[in-house]
User: Fold these one by one.
Assistant:
Number 1:
Amino acid sequence: SNSFHLAVMPGEGIGLEVMEAAATVLGAVEKRFELSFHQEHIPGGAHHYKETGAILPKDGLERAGKSDAILFGAMGWPDIRFPDGTEIAPQLDMRMAFELYAGVRPIRAIPGVPPVLAHERWKDIDLVIVRESTEGMFASRGKGEIIDDKEARDTQVITRKVTEQLTDFCCKLARNRRETRGTPGRVTLVDKANVFRSFAFMRKVFYETAAKHPDIDARHHYIDAMALDLVRRPWDFDVLPTENLFGDILSDLGAGLIGGMGFAPSADIGAAHGMFQPSHGTAPDIAGKGVANPTAMILSVAMMLDWLGERHGSSAARDAARAIELSVDHAFGTMNLRTYDIGGRHGTRHIGNTIAELI
Amino acid sequence: SNSFHLAVMPGEGIGLEVMEAAATVLGAVEKRFELSFHQEHIPGGAHHYKETGAILPKDGLERAGKSDAILFGAMGWPDIRFPDGTEIAPQLDMRMAFELYAGVRPIRAIPGVPPVLAHERWKDIDLVIVRESTEGMFASRGKGEIIDDKEARDTQVITRKVTEQLTDFCCKLARNRRETRGTPGRVTLVDKANVFRSFAFMRKVFYETAAKHPDIDARHHYIDAMALDLVRRPWDFDVLPTENLFGDILSDLGAGLIGGMGFAPSADIGAAHGMFQPSHGTAPDIAGKGVANPTAMILSVAMMLDWLGERHGSSAARDAARAIELSVDHAFGTMNLRTYDIGGRHGTRHIGNTIAELI
Ligand SMILES: CC(C)[C@H](C(=O)O)[C@@H](O)C(=O)O
Ligand SMILES: CC(C)[C@H](C(=O)O)[C@@H](O)C(=O)O
C-alpha cells in the first residue's frame, strides 16, 4: 500500500515548530512519490496536563495505536511536573505501552555541518545506537523507593525476552545496513558485565541470540570504554545495542559528535508499532522563535518512511526516505544552509521549505 | 610532617611500568623538596588471585590502611575472573573498605597534546568529575539477582549520608579551585532526577547540603545533557559530582577529550584514607613493552602530594605537586614529548626520567 494513516503528535515548545517543517516535507513527498498520508493530529504534553489533568486525551493512546505510524515532536516542560517531582514525558509511557523495545538512534555525520572532532575521519561517522527502551533502569520509573528520607533505591531489570528481541533486531539492522551502505555487519553490545550480574546476564543472552545470525560479527564493549571510544574513534562502530539508560546517555553523546540534538533523529520500534521523533526536547529557551533546527525531525520522517516501506512493501516510501536524506545532505553540504544551533541564520521554516523544494 | 609512609600497589600489566616511572619522579621530588617517602610494596591483582586464591595478601588491606597514602597502579586481567564471570577489581573493594566516597577525576587539557575537539576553546578544559565511589549502582556489585535464567536485577542505592559528604567535599574542592586557579566556584550535580526517585532524592539532599556553602554556585544537569555538553562545551564546567556509574562513564568520556586514559589521573578520597591511581587499567595488549603513557600515574602522584600537603600541613608536599604538574606541562607543551598513545615514540621510562629531571 502507498497510503498511510499517521498519528501526528507535535507536542509543545519547538515540537510544534519542527513538526510544521516536517509537514511541509511530507507534502513534497506526497507529490513526488505517489504516496498519500492521512494525518490525524493528537495533542498532548505538559501543558495539556496542566490544563486537563491528563497528559494525552482519553482516547489519545488508542488512536495513536491504530495508526500506521506515529510522528512525535517533543513533550515536557521544566516547570510542569508530577507531584513526585519527576517530569512529564509521555514518550516514555508510549514506549512502554506499545512495547517499543528498540530505540534506534542513528549518528551520522552530515556533510557541511562544522566538525566537532578534530580528527579528519569525523566525516566517516555512521553508527546506530539501539537503546532498549522498555526496561533496564527505566523499569524503575515511578517505582523507586525512598526510605525515611535517608536512603533511596531504583532497580534495573533485564529480561531474556527483550534482550533476545533487541539482539535479533540489531542483527537484522546490521545486515540491512551492510547491504544498503556497505557497513561491516557488526553488532557491539555495550554493557558493564564486568561488575553487574544483570549485565553479565544481558551479555550471555546477547551472544546466545547472536549465534543464530552467523553472518553478523557480534562483540561487546564496556560502557565506560565506549564513552571514551565514541570520542576517540566513533568511525569504527556500526550497530550498538545497549540498556535503556546507557542508550539515553550514549545517544546524546553521539548527537554531540555530529553537531548536536538538532541533527539526531530517532525511531522507537516494536513488533506492532513505530514512533518517530527527534532526539531533542521542547527547548523552552528558544521555543516560538522560529529558530529551531528541524533536521532531526525531518530525518525522523525519513526513518518512518523506511520502516513503512519495509513493512508494507512500498518501494515508493523507501525511495522517499532516500530522497529526504539526500536532500538534507545537499542542503547542508552543497547549498551551505546553516541553522542557528551551528552558528547560522537559517530558521525552521527556511530549512523545511528548502528540503521540500529539493525533493 | 614531611615524611610519609606510602603503600605502593603497582598491580599488574602496565600498572607495573607506570609505577616505576612514578617512583623515579618521587625520587626527584624527595631530593628537591626535603620530603621523604617510606615505600611499602604490596602485591595484588588478578594474577595474584590465580596464584594464591586471594586478590591481595592476607594483611594487604590492613597494611595499606595504615599508610599515609596509597599509590595504586592497575589491577585486573580479562581472562582471570571470579566464578560468576565478573572481573577482579580490588580497587572497587578498597573504595568500599576504606569508604573512599569521593572519586576525584580531573579533566584538564595538557598543552601540546593534540586536540581531540575541533573547537579552539579545547585548551580551556579544566573540570573535575567527582564520582561517588561507594554506593549508587555499585552498591549492587555481587548482589544482583538472576531469576530462572529469565530476568536479572541490580539495585542502585543512594544514601543521605554519603550524598551530604560528597556535596561538602565538592563545595570545598570548588572553593579551593577558585582560590588557587581562578575557576568560578561552581558545583553541578549530574543526575537523572526527571525520571528516577533515587536521583530526585540525591538532588534534594545535594541542594540542602550546598545551602550551607552560600559562596558556592550549586546547580544540576541531566546525565544525558551532560554527555552532550562535555562534547560541545566542556570548558563551561567546574566541579561535577555524580553517582558512581555515571561518574565511571563521564570520567572516561572526559579522558577522551584530553587525549585518552593515559592523561587522566584520579584520587579516591575518604575521611581517613586516600588512594591515588591512573584512570586506566592494566592494558594487556601493550603490557611489558615499555610504551605505556605514565602521565596519568605521575599526575596521580601530584594529587597525592596535594592531599598529603593539605592534610599534614606540608607546604613542601604542595609545592612538589605544583612542580610535577608544571613539569608535565613543560614536557608536552614545550619539549614536545609525545607518548605512543598520541602517535609519538617516547616510552614509559623516557617520560618518567624527563619529568624527574625537570623537577
Ligand atoms: C525526556 C527524557 C525523559 C527522555 C529519556 O530519558 O528517555 C529523553 O532524554 C530521551 O532520550 O528520549
Ligand atoms: C575496572 C572497573 C571495574 C572500574 C570501575 O568500573 O570502577 C574502572 O572502570 C574505573 O573507572 O575505576
Note: Chain B is about 40% helix and 20% strand.
Number 2:
Amino acid sequence: MGEFELLGLLRERLPAAGPQVRLGSGDDAAVTVPGGAVATSVDALVEGVHFRRESATLRQIGRKAISTALSDLAAMGAAPGEAYVWLGAPEDLDDEGLLEVGAGLAAVAAETGTTVAGGDLTRAPVLSLAVTVTGHAPDADDFVTRSGARPGDALVVTGELGAAAAGLVLLEDSSAGAVDGQDLGAAIADALRARQLDPTPRLAAGKTLAAAGATAMIDISDGLAGDAGHVATSSGALLVIDADALPIAPGVEQVAAATGCDPLELAAAGGEDYELLAALPADALAAAQEALAALGVPLTVIGRVETAEGGNPRAEVRRRGGEAAPIRGFDQLRPRKPR
Amino acid sequence: MGEFELLGLLRERLPAAGPQVRLGSGDDAAVTVPGGAVATSVDALVEGVHFRRESATLRQIGRKAISTALSDLAAMGAAPGEAYVWLGAPEDLDDEGLLEVGAGLAAVAAETGTTVAGGDLTRAPVLSLAVTVTGHAPDADDFVTRSGARPGDALVVTGELGAAAAGLVLLEDSSAGAVDGQDLGAAIADALRARQLDPTPRLAAGKTLAAAGATAMIDISDGLAGDAGHVATSSGALLVIDADALPIAPGVEQVAAATGCDPLELAAAGGEDYELLAALPADALAAAQEALAALGVPLTVIGRVETAEGGNPRAEVRRRGGEAAPIRGFDQLRPRKPR
C-alpha cells in the first residue's frame, strides 16, 4: 500500500472532527479556531524504552500514546481538543500493524472527544509515537498549574496508586510470576497489567477538580513522590504526604511481597498511574469529593501543604510517627527518561 | 547531568516567549491564548532516515527539525507561533550534544519569532525529533490551503529548485565528488549542501502570498511534481507546469551531469527545497511579484491551472512542445517516508 493510501485509511478510521476544527488532517496544517485559552503538551512512546511489542498489543500501544499525552491535559483541567501524531514505523511493521496502532489512537480519541487533526508518518528504527495534544478552556486562568499550592491546602489523589508499577513487574519480572494467579487471583493480575498497558487519562476528574478550586495539579507519571516534588518546587511549598493514607491498589501488596520490595515504593515511586495529585483549599474539599463521587472516581486526602521553612520547597512522604520514608527510585523498571 | 537540570539548561537558551504564550515549558502543558485562528502541523526527523550525523552537525539537525515544520506554516500563510518538541536521545549522544541540538532549535526559533513552549525528552535508539508547530492568523479564512486553485490561476514558485537534491547528491554519492570544486566551484557546492542541511522556511513569503490572494499553496517537501499533484487533487484541477520555466538553482545542472541524471529530475522530483508553490489569480500576479521582490525572494511563473477534463485532477510537467516529461521518483536518494 502506498503512503498516501495508508494515510487515507488511517484518516477514515478517526472520529469526526470537533467544533473547533475548521480543517483537519490532509493539508499542510490543520486549522482550528480555539475561541479561548489552549493548553498544549507533547509526549512520546518509544519501543524498547517505554514498551515492548512482546507484552503490549499494537492497539494498546496506540491507545497509551494518546492517553498519556491527554493525561497532561487532565492535570490542567482542560477539555480535550485536538491531537497531532507522529508515527515512526519500523520495517517489520506491516500496513495491518500500522492500522492497528491507528485504531488504538482513534479509539481513545473517540472515547475522550479528541480530534486527531494532523499527523506525520515516517520510517523509524523502532515503533515510535510522539503525540501533541491541545485542550481548551474559556480563559487561561481556568487551567490549573503546578504552582498554586498554598499552606493549608489539602493534598488529594484520584483513584488508586501502585497498580501500573505492579503491572509492569508482572509483565517484566519473571520472578514475580509465582504470585500471579495464586496469592493474587487472575482478575487482579489482569487489572494490574491493564493499568500499565492501557492507562486512562482522568479528564473528567481533572476538569471537576479545576472547577472545584484546585490550586495546583499534576498527573502522576514519574511517581507520586517525584511529581509531588515538582508541585512543591513550582509552588515554593512543603508537601507532606502521609504514607499510611495512600490508596494502594488491590494486588500491589502481594506483588511487592513476591519481589521483596515495599508496597509503598510501588505506590509512591512507581509512576505511570496517571492519577491526579491536587492541592485543594480546605473549604473546597467536601464539594470536590462529592463531585468526584458522582463521576465514580475515588478521591483520597493523602496529606497537606505546609510552609517550606528556610526556603527549601520539597515533598516528604512520612510514615506514622512522622519520620520521612525513604523512597527508592524505580528507574530500573521504568527507563522512561534518558537519565 | 540529571534530566531536569538538562531540561533547565535547554529552556534557558530559548528565546523569550511571544505575546500569545501565558505559560511556557515546565508545567504539565503550555498555555496560550491565540485570539484567532491557529494552523498546526507536525514533522519528524529521524537519524538514518532523514539525516546522518556524519554529514550534518548537531546544530544543523536541530535547525532542520524546526525549519521543516515551520515550512508547513509558511505554506498556510501563517505567522509562526509556538513549537512543541519531542527529542529522542540515543545513548551515545552526551549532554553537550543534546544542548547543541537544542541550540539549533533555539536559533531558528529566535530567527523566526517562534516560542518553544513545550517539550519531551526521552531515550530513543537513534537521534529523533518530532516538532509540532502552531501558526496564527486573525481568521481561519486567512490561511491558504491546497484546495483553492482555480482554472486560470497562474502557478508560481519562490526561490530556486533542485538545490536540496543536488546537495544531497554531493553529501551522499561519492561518485559525484569529482564535480565538487572543479566544474562546480566550492562556494556553489557549499550552497547546495547548505540547502539540504539547513533549509529556510519561507515564512515571510508565505504570509505575503496569502495576503496577495493566493488561492492554494504548498511547500515543496516531496518534490515539485508530487506536491503540485497534491494541490491538483485537493483543488480538483489540472496543474500544467512548464519544464523550461523552472528556476533551477546554480550548480544543479553540473551535479546532474556528473551523476548522469536530468537536472529536471532534481528540480521537479528532488524535494526538500522548502520553496512555496502557489496558485495566484492573474490579476494578483503583478502585486505578488512586487511584494516578494521587496522581500528579496524571487517569484517565478512556472505554469497555470486548467480544468481537469474527465474529472482526472493531476499535475503535469511539460517540456517544450507540450509533451509530458516523465519525472522519475527520487526516493532512492530521499528515504523520507516509509513507503
Note: Chain B has two domains: 3-142, 154-318.
Number 3:
Amino acid sequence: MRRLKIVVVVADGLGDRPVPELGMRTPLELVDFSPVADLLSRSAVGLWDPIRPGVRPGSDTAHLALFGVDPINNYPGRGPFEAIGAGASLRPGDVAFRGNLATVSDEMVVIDRRAGRVIPEAKQLVEYLNQNIGEIEGVRVEVYHATEHRVAVVFRGPGLSDAVSDTDPHSEGVRVLESRPLADDEAARRTARVVNAFTKRVAELLRDCPLNARREERGAPPVNAILLRGAGKMVRYPRFSERGELDVARAVAISATALVKGVCALLGFEVVTPEGATGGIDSDLMSKARAAVEFYRRGYDLIYVHVKGADAASHDGNPYAKVDMIERTLRVLSYIADNVDLEDVVISFLGDHTTPVTVRDHTSDPVPVAVYAPGILTDGFSRLTEKEARRGSLGRLRSVELFGTLMDYAGRIEKFGA
Amino acid sequence: MRRLKIVVVVADGLGDRPVPELGMRTPLELVDFSPVADLLSRSAVGLWDPIRPGVRPGSDTAHLALFGVDPINNYPGRGPFEAIGAGASLRPGDVAFRGNLATVSDEMVVIDRRAGRVIPEAKQLVEYLNQNIGEIEGVRVEVYHATEHRVAVVFRGPGLSDAVSDTDPHSEGVRVLESRPLADDEAARRTARVVNAFTKRVAELLRDCPLNARREERGAPPVNAILLRGAGKMVRYPRFSERGELDVARAVAISATALVKGVCALLGFEVVTPEGATGGIDSDLMSKARAAVEFYRRGYDLIYVHVKGADAASHDGNPYAKVDMIERTLRVLSYIADNVDLEDVVISFLGDHTTPVTVRDHTSDPVPVAVYAPGILTDGFSRLTEKEARRGSLGRLRSVELFGTLMDYAGRIEKFGA
C-alpha cells in the first residue's frame, strides 16, 4: 500500500450556531473560502464528534481522540491536564490536582474560595511557594499558575495514588478539609498525608509572605491557602512509534498553546512553536504554515498545525474576530496545499471542538471536517460551513474514527482481521 | 452558561414501516403536522437508536438511555423490570424473575407452560398466593400479575443473588427444574434454596385453591405452578441530583404506564399521573399537557411527558388508530410550546422505540426525533415523518447521546476535559 503524508490543520473552536449579530448566520457562513475552494471541492466533508454526541469536549480530550486515543477509557481527570496546560511536564505516576488560591481564617475556615479572583501577583506567589516548599516525605511538589485564582499542583514521587479526597470543601464558611485515603492501601494513605502536609506548609509559607502584606495594604484579601480538588494520576500514552497498528515514525505538532503542546508531546509528537506564533489572535500564522511545509519536505509522516485564534475569539463572544481568524487559518491551509505534492498527501481541516460565540464555551455540537486525499470520493462543496458539513458524505464520525480514516487514506494502518 | 428548561414529549412506538393498508405509506405520512409545523421548522431533526442499531429496545432500556443511563452496562435483566411494569416498587438488592402461571402434573411434569394462556382469574390467583405464601428463610416473596399467564416474582431479603438457574424447563413433558446456584457463594446457594421452596409452596397452595376447582369445572387447565426464568438483581441508579456532571435539580415524569413510571422513579423523577390519563387510547392527553405546563411554571428543570397510545395502536396493528394517537400527541406538544417561553426551553419530540403496525412489536428501526432549542441550527422541515428524520442534520444518534445533546443545549452538562 502506498504511504502518504498526513497534514492536519485545526482551527480551534471552529463550529458555531446561528449568531443574532450576524442575522442568524454562523461565522463560517461569512467566511471567504476562495483560497481553499479547489481543495475543498476535491474533499469529502462531514461532521466529527470529538468524544461522542452529547459530550462537551475539553481541548485535551478532543486532541487525544483526534490522534487516535479513546479519551473515555484513557483520561486521568482534569488535574494532570490542567497542570500540562499551565506548562508542567508530567511523568506517568505523577498525581496532580486542580487548585484554587484562597483566603482562609487563622482557624483554616474558608473566607473566599478565590481570594478575590483577580490576583495580579499570582505568578510571584506561586514562584515563592515553589522556591520554599521543599520536599514532603520524599515527594516533590510543584505549583503551576493557570489563570486568575486557578492553579495546578503536581506531586511527584514513588508510591503515590489519586484515590484521595479533596481538601477544597467547595463552599465558604467551613474549614479546609483533610484529604482522606479513598482506597485501603499504603499509596492512598501516603498521598493523603503528603497532601495534608502540603496544605499546612502552604499556610505557613503564605502567612509570612511579603506579597500578602502588600495585598492587604490595598485592601485585597490575602492569598493564604491552596484548596485542592480532582486528583488524577498521570497515565502513559503509547507514542505513535509504539502503536503496532500504525506506521507513523515521525510526527510534528506546530502549536503555541501549552495544553495542546503538552498533549501532543505525550502522544509522541515533536512539538514546535515557530517564532511569532503566540496562540492569540495576533499570532503570526504564516510562520506555522512555513514550518509545516518545512517538516513536510524533511519527510515527516504526520504534520499537525494547531491555530488557537478562532477559539479565543469565540470565548470573547466576537463573531467578526472569529471570521477573521478562520480566514487567516484558511490561508495557512491554502499555503500548505500549494506547497506539497497533492498526490502524496492526505489533508484534513477541522475544529477540535465547537465553541459557539453565543455560548462562549465548548459545546457538544459536532465540528465540520474536510478530508482531502488522492482518489477520495468527493462531495464537491467549495465551502465548509456547518450546512455543507451536515450534508457531507463522511456523515457523523465519532472520537477515534476520524484518525483511523485519515490513517487509512494515507495507507498507514493495519487491517483488523485476516 | 445560561440554563434552560427541558421538555421531552414521547409518542411511544412512534416510528413505523410502510403499511400496505395505507398504500405503503407510514402512519406518520398521514399525520396532520400543522399544529407543530412552526416548532418543527425551528428544530433540528434526525434519528435515534435507543440502544444501538440492530438492537430491539424494551420500553425500560429505551427509557434508561433516553435519560442518560447506558442500558447495556446497567441493566439487571428483565425480571426486575417486568416486576416494575406490573406495579412493584423494587429496592436495590431485590431479586426478581419473570414467571409463567403453568399447569403441571402431580409429579411436577409440565403439561402447559401457559395454563391455557387466557386466565381470567389470574389477578385473584396471585392475590391468593400473596396472602398465603409467607416468608421463606426470612425472605419476603411477592407475585405480580402482568398479562395473561405472565407474572413477575420478587424475592426481598438480605444476602440474595441472581446467580441462580431457571425453574422453567422451557418445554413441556419434562419436570419443573430445581434452581441451582450458578456461583460458588452462600448468596447463590441461599437464593436457590428459597426459589425451590417457593416452587414447592406455590404447588401446595394452588392444589387446594378454590379458584382452580372452578377452572376445572369449565374444562380449563388448572393453574398449579409458577415457572421462573431470568433472575435479575435490582441495581441502584444514580438520581439526577447525584449525577455530578448534570445540573438537574427537579424533574417530573408525567405518565400513566407502570413500567415507564417505575423506570422514571428509579432515575429520580417525581412521577405524576394526571386525572383522566389512562395510558390507553382513551387517555385524556390534554390533562398531561396542562400538567407539563404547570410543572414548567413551578420551575422544574426537566419535564417528561409520556403518551402510550401510539404504541398500543401499533401492538393492535391498527394504523388509523396510530395516526389518530400521534395527532393527539402533537396537540399536547403544541399546547406546551404555546405555553412556555421558547427562549427559555429545549423541547424534544420523539418515540421511545419504533413499533411498526405491520410487526406489532418493538423493532430496532431508529425513531424520528426533533430537537428545538433557541439558536439551534435548524433543518427547516415542517413535518417529521421517517423521511425527514433520515435527512435531518442530527444524523443518527445512539443511546445516551441524545440525552447529552439535550442537556448541552440546555446548558446543564459539564465539560469532559480541560
Note: The mean pLDDT of chain A is 96.
Number 4:
Amino acid sequence: MHVTILGGGGFLGRKLAARLAAEGAIGGRALAGLTLFDLAEPPPLAAPFPVTRLAGDVADAAQLAQAIPAGTGVVFHLAAVVSAAAEADFDLGMRVNLQGTLAVIEACRALPTPPRLVFTSSVASFGGGQGAVLADDARQLPANSYGAQKAAAELILQDASRKGFLDAVSIRLPTVIVRPGRPNKAASSFVSAILREPLLGLDTPLPVEEGFAVWVCSPRRAVEWFLHAAAMDTAPLGLDRGINPPGLSVRVGEMLAALTPSERAHVKPAPDPAVQAIVGGWPAAFTAARARALGFSPQEGVAEILAAFREDDLAATRAERGL
Amino acid sequence: MHVTILGGGGFLGRKLAARLAAEGAIGGRALAGLTLFDLAEPPPLAAPFPVTRLAGDVADAAQLAQAIPAGTGVVFHLAAVVSAAAEADFDLGMRVNLQGTLAVIEACRALPTPPRLVFTSSVASFGGGQGAVLADDARQLPANSYGAQKAAAELILQDASRKGFLDAVSIRLPTVIVRPGRPNKAASSFVSAILREPLLGLDTPLPVEEGFAVWVCSPRRAVEWFLHAAAMDTAPLGLDRGINPPGLSVRVGEMLAALTPSERAHVKPAPDPAVQAIVGGWPAAFTAARARALGFSPQEGVAEILAAFREDDLAATRAERGL
C-alpha cells in the first residue's frame, strides 16, 4: 500500500512520517511507499520503503495527481493555512483550506480504489467559547475563517464518502501543544509558546488571563489519532465522518504550574484582544464520548505533555533557533 | 436601490420578481432597477422600474459582475441545481450550488457597499428523518449532495458576513408546494405532484406511504420570507445567518384529504426506494422558534395552500401543459 502525507513537511506531518518509517505499516498493512508533499520539499526521511518528496500546491490538480498515485491506500491531508493567517488573508485560506480539500477529493476520486482520507479539521470550527462543553452532535458555528473553511470542507468530505469517492475521517484537532520551533501565525500559538519559550530561557507574552481554558492535545497523541483513523473500521461512523477526539481541557494557570518558578517568570502578561477574539470563541471542552467508543485514546495530563516535549523536541528546537 | 434575483427565471424567482414589480420597494426602500439572471433569459416583466434580463452561468465571475452592478442593495440568490439532479451529477451540483455561491460572494465583495444577500438553503441540508423535530441549534448532517453543498455554502456565507463582504440571511426552505408546471428532478417533486396532477385530471405516482410526513411551505409564504429576510435587521442574528423558517409539518394522507374523492383517485401508490432514500432522510418538523421571534410568519394549513395554487397557478399550468 502507498501512503501520502499532504503537509508532509509540517510539524505534525514530519512526526507522522517518522512514525510510519519506524513502524513500516498501518493497521497491519505494510507500506510499499510514502509520498511527502508540501509547499517546500519536505526533508529527507530514512525509511524501510521508498520515500518520494514533492514540493507543490495542494490546490493544483496536476501536482496532486502526482502526489496521490494509483495504489494509494491512505492519504493524510494535513496541509492548511492556519487560523490567524486565514483570518488575515481570506483568499489564501479559501484557496488552500477549502479549494485545496476539494482538489484532494478529486485526486482520490480518480484512483481505481477509494483511499482512506484522514483530514485534520479543528476545534476552531466550533463556537461556544469558554463556558462550553460540547456534545458529539454539537453543530459547527465557527467564528473565524479557518474554522468555516474546515467545517465546509468536512461537509463535502462527508458527502464524498457517502458517494464512495473516498473514505474520510475528519479529526477536529484540539490546540496541539507543545509545538516545537518558533511562534507562528496560529492564533493559538501562545498556548505552546508559554511552555516552550520558558524552557528555552526566553520571555513570552501571555495574551489571555490565567483562568482561560483551552482544549489541547500533544503531538504524540495527535499522531496516535491519525494512525487510528487510518486503520479503523469506518462502517460504524455512518454518514458522520467528524471526530471530536478526547483531548484535555486545561487552564493556562494549570499549564504554567507545570513550569519551575524561574521558567514561569519568563511568561509576561500582555492581553491581546485580537488573539482573544479568535481563540476566545473556541470551545474549551468536549465530551468526546463517541471518539472514545470508537477507540481514540484519551490525552494524558500536562506533566506528560511537557515531558514528551523535552524528550522529543526541546534539543532540536534549541539547535534550530541557535540557542 | 438596485435588486438582483439570481435564478430569476425559476418558479420562485418569477413569483418574487412579480411581487417586487407590484410593490416597487423592499422594506420602504424604493427599487431603482431589477436584474433577473438565469441560465436562460428570464421572461419579460412589467414593472415601475427598469428590468434587465440576463442569461448566464452563476459560477462565471464576469457574468455575475454584470448581474450585480454597483448600487445593488439586495441580491436574492435562488439559483441552484435541485436535489435529485445534484445527486445524479455530483460535479454539476458542486459547480452551481457551492462554487456558484462562492462566485456570488466575490461579486458582492466587489461592490462599494456590502449588499444584503438572501440565500435559499434547504431542509435537505439536515438529517434526522421522519421522527425528528429539529431545534434551532440542530446541526446540518445532510444525507445528500444537494444538502451538503447548501450547508457548506451557508458556512462560507456566514463567514463572509462576519468579514463584512456582504450581509447574508440563509433560509432553509421546506419543500415548496404546490409547484406549478411539470414534475421536475427534485426528489421532493412528488409532494407537489400529488396535489397538482389530480387537479389537472392526471394520474400521478405516490412513492411513499400516506403516513410519510413532510416539512412544507407555499410559494406565497416563501416569497414573504424572502422579503422579510431582505428587509430585516440582521444585528440580532449575530454569527448565525441560518434561518429555519416556520413551515408546516404535514402527512401525505392529510394532503390527500384536501382533494375530492375523484381527484384523489388519480394518486397511485408506487413505492420508490430511490426517492425514499433521499426525502426519507430529511427532517419532517422543526421548532422554528428563532425564526418566529425574528418575525418570519408561519405557514398556514393545507387547505389554504391548495386554494392559493388554484388562484395563482392552476390556469397557467393548464395552459403551459396544453390541458
Note: Chain A has 13 helices and 14 strands.
